[in-house]
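Hi U.,

Before I forget, here's the chain from the pilot set. I'm dumping it here mostly so it's searchable later in email.
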Amino acid sequence: MNYTDLQGKSVEELESMLKEKKLEVFTLRAKLKTMQLTNTSELKAAKKDVARIMTALSAARTK
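Structure:
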């Protein structure tokens, strides 16, 4: 996911995407703690996606 993909989205779309990604981060952390996560880079990528969505959401709200 790139920031440029998120720039054209509405605030409602970004908020729903943020909710989904935060849930994904939560499940990945749970899998990491229970030793079920085989690819730990998924957690890092999901956290970066959350940050990108939050940045786009902040920019959309200031417009």
